[in-house]
Design brief:
Helix content: over 70%
Strand content: under 5%
Strand order of the largest sheet: 1-2
Number of helices: 6
Order of helices and strands: EEHHHHHH
Radius of gyration: 53 Å
Number of strands: 2
Distance between the termini: 145 Å
């Protein structure tokens, strides 16, 4: 155990060897105190640093607010675009139905035009005109009867003139 008696170490290992160290507390602590310079300039620097920190915190807060506003604006734009898409696609089922109906009509018309080619097999003008009348009669049953009939009549007359140019 080491004791300090009359400002000297007593009882330590060094005393056994005849060496008694003397510790000067002021000289030991002097480097530490030199690093801490408590003068007016340092206090002003601390105040400046605190101001800078506060400004940086305020700038960071404003940046976060701006990012949040931008995020909200993007979400609003996306919602508007989604609503527009929904409004634009609301008519798709109806359009698909109309396209199917149109395809059915086109298939019927194609069938009628193919039947009209039977005119080419006719032996007489009367037989050819009978085929045309029969096909036009079937055209009256289609969904678009008026256009079908006029188109078929024109086609039938053209075929008759090709087959029987003298009539």
């Amino acid at each position: 155990m080491v004791e300090i008696i009359d400002g000297k170490y007593r009882g330590g290992k060094m005393e056994k060897f005849g060496i008694i160290p003397k510790i000067n507390i002021e000289s030991a602590l002097k480097p530490a105190f030199q690093k801490l310079d408590y003068n007016k300039t340092s206090l002003a620097n601390v105040g400046e640093m605190l101001d800078r920190i506060n400004r940086l915190k305020e700038m960071e807060r404003q940046e976060q607010e701006l990012k949040q506003q931008q995020k909200e604006q993007r979400e609003m734009q996306l919602n508007e675009m989604i609503q527009q898409i929904v409004a634009n696609t609301a008519y798709l089922p109806e359009m698909v139905g109309l396209i199917r109906k149109n395809n059915e009509i086109n298939e019927e018309m194609l069938g009628l035009f193919q039947e009209m080619t039977e005119v080419l097999k006719a032996q007489t003008v009367e037989e050819a005109e009978g085929i045309v009348k029969t096909v036009v009669g079937k055209a009256q049953e289609t969904n678009d009867a008026l256009d079908a009939m006029s188109g078929l009549l024109s086609y039938g007359k053209l075929l008759i003139k090709l087959m029987f140019p003298e009539s």
